Amino acid sequence: MKGKKKLLARILYYSGIHKVKWFNNKNKLIVFNYHRIKPNDNNFATPFDDDVFCPTVSVFIEQIKWLKQNVKILSEKELIDVLDAKRAPSGLNVLITFDDGYRDNYTLAYPALKKLNVPAIFFIPTNLINTRQVGWWDIIAYLIKNTKKPYIIFEDKKFLLHVERKKTIEFFNNKMKLEKAEKTANLLKTLAEVCEVDMPDFDKQDSQLMTWEQIREVSKNNISIGAHTHTHRVLSTLDLTTQKEEMTLSKAILEREIEQNVSSIAYPVGGHQHFTQESCNIAEQSGYKLGFSYNTGMDSWSTIHAFNIRRISAPENKTMLAVQAVLPRVFV
């Protein structure tokens, strides 16, 4: 499927029929989501999770320029107004979001968005910003990348790291995503012991995350701040009381820090198995107006649900983004 998409991208791009005016997309909302932006450095490497990086900053700028020239980029407020009015806007509409509060959202993405006067929503997990600790997915990647052991054994399962390092990272990520929170509460500590690797030090983790000062700055410059819960634990792994605490606490902290109302929440990880209808109900009861999933497709205005707004992962090149925009039915 991936090969077909790349081929389609090349055909559309070089034939010129990737232009939006060739297609009738007035009933679609596409929410492109990013996590991290890479610097323009061919030698760039991270000690943390590779999979949260999307395009380089130069490609990101090309993508945003293309979107601005060809589609309507909505702000959070404009989307809320559309849903309140229950009237589909004309043309193709796009929303841009970022998850997890990474520092490069501020140093690389924000300057481009500000220069081009393009709105976005940054979803912030408040406890990570408060404690200056990266998320569990980054810790898992760090420990497995840095172990000197040729293999590790966990719960009687052997992982040959010289050939299965990426699969091993995926295995532990899936445990955090799908198993009950009480079962995985000590997983990172146990993994560190198994790998015989110390946790990354404070400075190494701190440097990966936005500061409250940076979050306050972007919130005053066309960037809406949304919640990403407090601890970024997967909602479906938590009981309903804890889900409520995660959503209300993150909203309260954000509103105190930026002195603005917080209207949106993105459910951590965000696949359909990672939150429930009860999660959506709690989000609404907690005072949010919008709730976002992730990697779940695109929305039609006729069927959109304010607390289950679909998002797709932004691609690593401009051409693929253009194809996703002009042919949304291919990617639903």
Number of helices: 15
What share of residues are in beta strands?
15-25%
Largest sheet: 7 strands, mixed
Averaged pLDDT:
91
Encode the helix/strand succession as letters. Answer: HEEEHEHEHEHHEEHHHHHEHEHEEEHH
Give the helix proportion (percent range). 40-55%
Distance between the termini: 13 Å
Helix/strand-derived class? alpha/beta
Which geometry do the CA atoms define?
globular
Query: What is the C-alpha radius of gyration, as a whole number of Å?
Result: 20 Å
Number of strands: 13
Unreliable residue runs: 14-24
Could you please describe the fold and organization of this structure?
With 332 residues, the protein is of the alpha/beta class. The protein has helices at 2-15, 57-70, 76-85, 103-116, 126-131, 136-146, 161-178, 181-184, 187-195, 202-206, 212-219, 240-258, 277-285, 318-326, 328-331; strands at 28-34, 36-38, 53-56, 72-73, 93-99, 120-124, 151-154, 157-160, 223-227, 264-266, 290-292, 299-300, 312-313. The longest helix has 19 residues, at 240-258. The radius of gyration is 20 Å and the shape is globular. It starts with a helix and ends with a helix.
Task: Write a concise synopsis of the structure shown.
It is built from 15 helices and 13 strands. It has 332 residues and is of the alpha/beta class.
